[in-house]
Structure prediction request, 734 residues.
Amino acid sequence: MKRLIFSFTLLFAATQVWAQAQIKQPGKLHASAVAIVVDETTYRATQPAIDAYKNMLETKEGLSAYLVVHTWKDAQEVKDVLQQLYKKPLQLEGAVLIGNIPVPMIRNAQHLTTALKIDELKYDMERSSVASDRFYDDLHLQFRFVSQDEKKPLLFYYELTEQSPQVVHSDFYSARISPNGDANTQYAAIRDFLAKAVAARDKKDTLDHVLTFAGPSYNSESLSAWLDENDALKEVFPLAWKHPYQHRHLNYRMEEQMKFRLLSELQRPQLDLAIFTNHGLTALQHVNGIYSSDDASEVLEHLQLFVRADYRKLVKRGQEPAKVIATLSKRYNVTSSWFDQVDSLRVSDSLAIAATDIVTADMAHIAPQPRMMFFNACGNAAFHEEDNLANAYLFNKGNTVVAHGNTINVLQDKWLLQQLGALSYGVRAGIWATRTNTLESQLIGDPTFHFANPYSTDLNKLLLTAGGKLATWQQLLKSSDPALQAVALSAIYRLQGAACSPLLAQTFRQSASPNVRMQCLTLLAQTGNDTYRDVLELALKDNYELIRRKASDWIAKDGSDRFIAPLVQNMLERPDDERIVYTNYKALALMDWDKVKAAVEAQTDAATWIYNVKGYRKMWLQKIQKDQTTATTALKNIQDPNQKESIRWSAIRSLRNGNYHKLVPALLEIAKDNTQPVQIRTGVLEALGWFSTSYQKPLILEACEKISKDNSNDEAVIREAVQTRARLTEWTLF
Prediction:
């Protein structure tokens, strides 16, 4: 009894000091806790607001809350404190990072992102690193310190070690509250935002009003992709799809100036959540392209505008105006008269181009209503940049309290809706994020926010407390709700791994839910086994376009010739699936040419309905053969010791996107060759680490094992072999 009282007293001691950090203990004991981490200067300037936020979490959210205050010297210092809190008996479910908290800039870990493949040797460290709080919330990942940025002292560079796990599994959630501007502006913004977060608990709404938008030059260009997404959304957010006034599934084609429609839609009073899928930059959402018109004069005006914009861009870079006019006239086959009004129309052109994008300055003129924003775009949540879009949505007079986005570029074909249905069950934004985190994904704002739960299932509690209870998840899988089924399948996979492949395959075959089938395929993709390959072939014929799209993409990563005939059939049966057809061409180029040619000829001959079948077939084979020629050229350049080093290096890096499986034996010979330059050997080994599910993977694993145990190899080569082997042992396909 005395021991229990002593532990309780320690838990609620007013303040403790760990490594000089002041830790104010929770004021109330709940089942789980959140750590509020703030720098000392920010805390002094915003103390009443932070204390009120802490009190709200403990009195209205059922969360114990630590308050950690310190003048942080580096990111490791923050991580050490969070790690100590995580080890305490009171479960740490998340961390809220307020103010000037060190920013981990991660290197040597691009395989943990969905799309980044930048050359870390060629570009400067800030540009080629990933700002990521996985450094804090995934305690399994191991890093080596590299340096602190000299110009931006909050940035700390770390590289993922070869001994570290090579996949993301966040132990708790994290989010940033770090507005832009000078110190006084930042402190005022933090105070106002925290007051908004506290007030948001006065009235909790169910998630029943949703806005989605798909922008230009993205997967939305495929109408079959955009239309199918509506069916998936209807299942994820059933309350919003009960009435046509409660959801809007918008496409950039719907308005000539979609920007102003969106700025209006964002202010609808009852809007709960908005999802934007578009191209983006740190401070920009691209929402319109050249508007399609039947009026030839309008089309001409648009073309002239963009040619003039090209002119101004090149002149701004220092090129001579006369030479720019000559270059662009030849490029676009236009006369010099197109540039006559380039100065007089500068202002009107600028306004017209501005109307195609939403930028941070626009947020000062509206009050965004969604409590939660999703930015499925590149860089919109780059919290370390001086001006970023997610901050603009949160730190203003609107109602938005949390946003999910990415700190760098993101994969266009990412499965955005993964387990998003959990939000309708009142799951916290942060708890959802831990299920789907990548290196670049980021929460901005209050991660503890959640919508009201109109159902009897307490999914928040299950996700926090039932992690290791297989029977609980097996029972939940029997639910009729696809949202619960998807969560259950993910939990079962976390417990059983590849052993649950038969269950996933059976569920894929039997489920009527596109989201459940997509969950099964995604989990099976982490096994790379024969059950996965069987389902992959079925997935090419699925009713949901995204499943067909991911199947095509992941078949390319497998490379087995067994998929040749199904790919050819898919191209014949679904020529309107633009993105899938493109990926199918790429996949077929990775396979045996003679077998591909034979399959194309046989199936096109049998398709008697094709007009001009010979011309159609010739076009197909030329596209495929062009990509195969690219592979052959790449190998020649890599193998040639007399080739320019830059050309050899470029060819090696091309393997990261094009997994030319048949080249693996030849590439391994280069990796094992002690006479080759170290950079070439490590580059080849790193590139082979992207062959996650390749049918050639056993050869790569065997070679990496031998290289890593041969002490005659350079240390850098051994390290790369160890890391590549680890990457091919456990991976994530996006």
